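From the pipeline queue, job 12 of 40. The input is one protein chain; the requested action is below.

Action: predict structure.
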Amino acid sequence: MSNNFEAFSGIPNALKTFSDKSLDFPHLRKQDNRTRQERREDFEEELGKIDRAFLEDIKNTVLNSQSKEELWSLKEEVENCLIKFSRYFDSFENFNAEETRKVELKKRELKLEARHDWSSKFRLFFFRVLASFLLIVTLFSIGYIEHEYEWARLPMSKYLKIAPSSQ
């Protein structure tokens, strides 16, 4: 039966650690009486100060920090850096998506223009072939009519020598 209560034997030690004053909690911020717009402007101004050198300094400070207090003091700056980074990343993705849409739209326009160009080329080719065919048929039919019918003989045709047919 004594084995059942051995699991709870560590509870008094745990309670002592909670009452120990060695645990440091981060300081709570004092109440801010500014308007929401003023806070937003100040926050944007802080983000505007963040540049590449500032990011590298924060990175080196975090890597070289030895205690939790140093990390807690950098918490707000690291959060601001991450917010700025996420905004840049979102704007880059948005810009990339816009450029992709523009490229796709341009491709579609070029395909449509090429299709229209081929249709106009085909139409032009078709009418040229049709005109050539009609010209040839017209010339042959005029020749046939002139050869078959006496009334269709042209006045100057006597000067043309026609080879005798082999019939």
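Job complete. The mean pLDDT is 78.
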